[in-house]
Write a structure and sequence with these properties.
Layout: H1 2-20, H2 24-52, H3 54-73, H4 78-106, H5 112-140, H6 145-148, H7 150-164, H8 179-198, H9 204-227, H10 241-271, H11 276-281, H12 284-304, H13 307-324, H14 333-360, H15 367-392, H16 403-431, H17 438-443
């Protein structure tokens, strides 16, 4: 649900903007409201799950998300909708890290790669199917129903969770909760997002203050996390080159993915003249490819190691983005479907190996923290890229309603995101060298390039 609501709203942004008389900045905040609170608090959610019980926190998050979704559906204004999206993000921060931590702590080691592959594939499918589902709902109902569909789904998940999910926690997670780390994370990301989203309308003094808060917050956060007994972010995780490289690649790739989908659906509707439904249909190849390829790619990565798929995958996605950069006023289905097909193929190659690499590099007792941290990195990358790119490419205000101005900015944005994806592939190639396939690593055998 968290992944779906991150993407399903994207397709509805032009419709929401017209209905609620929003500016481009307002639409950015509708898109970023959930992502900001999710990125800020997902580390708290992972830590609370490890301490209080992963099933308990997961199901509380599901219920919270459902209530916030109802508030989104009732929104009479952009401000109300943004506030409700922030509340959605809090629920998502409680439920998202719990899912992977539950898989890691309750399944046998041999079963985990396949389960992680299914989880990663379903998450990717949720992101990809969001525009398609949103387009269908808006065409037949109203945009408010994209939030109401969460209510029966939440009820089903809570009922099933109470019946079948065993409780688990980290018995070593005792002592005082890291409130300082949580507060610093919130202040740092909020200041940085505000800075990037509103930079074109802010005075120099406000720009300096927001930038200083973000920079100082980062430094103080690192100092605090090094000193507290039970940190929100266990910095020892970053001693693993695999963990650090995978998270840097996550930041670059998911930043590019979030920004690409944000720009693409607006370009298809405003410039190419696609209906909401048809612009959603163009993402269907991504969903289909993720559905059929995610689990096999998880098995392949277990055999050959994560380096090759995590290098090739972003490069293929970058090729898809470059194809999509050619979407313009005269474009039809061909260029859009070709671009999203290549995009989906690359995404299918990288998502499962990435998730498995991150969790495999962390000890089991820190499964919740590792999952939360990787999710936070992914959401933060998407948040910052979506917040910054419109200003970088010269778009603001009502420019999203002007096909000529928006096309110029759209094309520049696609070039930037393709570059980020290529850089992510290079990070994987150099950062994951020497990683052994899982089967060899368990047997103590050397991998293809070293132990």
């Amino acid at each position: 649900m968290a992944a779906l609501d991150t993407s399903v709203v994207t397709i509805a942004l032009p419709t929401i903007g017209r209905d609620l008389a929003s500016s481009l900045g307002g639409l950015q905040w509708v898109n970023n409201g959930l992502t900001l609170s999710l990125s800020t608090l997902i580390l708290v959610g992972g830590s609370l799950g490890d301490r209080l019980g992963r099933r308990r926190v997961y199901l509380v998050g599901i219920s919270w998300f459902a209530v916030a979704s109802l508030l989104c559906a009732l929104a009479p204004s952009t401000g109300w909708l943004v506030a409700a999206r922030v509340l959605q993000g809090i629920g998502a921060a409680l439920l998202t890290p719990g899912a992977l931590a539950i898989i890691r702590s309750t399944l046998r080691e041999d079963d985990q790669p396949g389960a992680i592959g299914v989880w990663a594939g379903m998450s990717g499918i949720a992101v990809a199917i969001g525009p398609f589902l949103g387009g269908w709902i808006i065409e037949h109902l109203t945009w408010r129903w994209i939030f109401l569909v969460n209510l029966p789904l939440s009820a089903a998940v809570v009922a099933a969770g109470l019946a079948v999910i065993p409780e688990s926690r980290d018995d070593r997670a005792v002592g005082r909760f890291d409130l300082a780390g949580a507060g610093l994370t919130a202040a740092m990301l909020a200041a940085l997002t505000w800075l990037l989203t509103e930079s074109r309308t802010m005075s120099s003094a406000l720009l300096a203050v927001a930038g200083a808060v973000a920079a100082v917050g980062m430094v103080v956060f690192i100092v605090v996390e090094r000193r507290v007994a039970y940190p929100l972010v266990p910095l020892t995780l970053f001693r693993s080159r695999v963990f650090s490289s995978a998270n840097l690649m996550t930041f670059l790739v998911y930043g590019a993915l979030g920004a690409t989908l944000f720009f693409l659906v607006v370009q298809l509707q405003v410039t190419a003249g696609f209906s909401v439904r048809d612009s959603g249909l163009t993402t269907l190849p991504i969903t289909i490819l993720l559905l059929f390829l995610s689990a096999p790619m998880a098995t392949l990565a277990q055999r050959i190691g994560p380096r090759a798929p995590m290098t090739v995958g972003p490069m293929v996605v970058a090729l898809g983005v470059l194809i999509l950069s050619r979407v313009q006023a005269t474009s039809g289905w061909g260029i859009a479907l070709l671009g999203t097909s290549v995009f989906g193929l690359g995404l299918s190659v990288l998502v499962s190996p990435l998730t498995a690499a991150v969790l495999g590099a962390a000890p089991e007792r820190l499964a919740g923290a590792a999952s939360a941290l990787n999710n936070a990195v992914a959401r933060t990358g998407s948040l910052l890229a979506t917040a910054a790119l419109p200003a970088v490419v010269g778009l603001s205000g009502a420019d999203y309603l002007d096909p000529v101005r928006f096309t110029h900015g759209y094309r520049l944005a696609m070039y930037v995101t393709a570059g980020l994806l290529g850089l992510g592939g290079l990070v994987s190639w150099f950062g994951l060298r020497g990683t052994a396939p899982a089967a060899r690593a368990r047997a103590g055998e050397p991998g293809p390039t070293g132990p």
